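Hi U.,

Before I forget, here's the chain from the pilot set. I'm dumping it here mostly so it's searchable later in email.
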Amino acid sequence: MQLSRRRFLTLSAALFVANPAQAAPLHRARGQALGATVTILLAHPDAPRIAARAMAEIARLERIFSLYDPGSELSRLNAEARLDAPSFELLDCLSLCDRVHAATAGAFDPTIQPLWASYARHFAEGAAPDAGTLEAERRKTGWHRLRFDAAQVRLEPGMALTLNGVAQGFIADRVSELLKAEGLGDILVDTGELRALGGHPEGGDWPVALASGEGLTLRDMALASSAPR
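Structure:
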């Protein structure tokens, strides 16, 4: 059983009101991925086709990283403790995780999944796991026990990975680069984490509102946030 993260960000973007003879209207595409709503905002004469391609790419990447899909690469790795011929994207994401793990002196550790799942299961039942259970789950963690190369990803028995701390941002970055390659310079991608290229087509930066009510703007930057539940 997976605990869903409370969505912490809401988008606030005005409709593009420029003369349609001069520029395309703002197009808003929505979908679902990794248990969250996905929104893409862009202005382009061929926006529906471009947005559909972006959504297809998101769906492809979800089949790699999702813990909700039993057929995803990540789910198969967790179930079998090995994955042969991993995709380039999975290896790229694991390499990123390796760098962040080192940069945070081990604080970022995607092998936390067994411990997280134990907490999720017990709190769903209305009680915290006991000390013995927690210690048993902790023994299944440890980034140094993961092995991966172009041929295979390997886990030790009982281990499991979660990429929920990085996959949404990873996908947002990939989709943003895809749209940039289509010639778009002003786009906002929200996969649960935000990536802005350029500014709002109407002018100015992209306005974003936090669930707390605080507002901020984005231009050529990314924003990730979280919440305690």
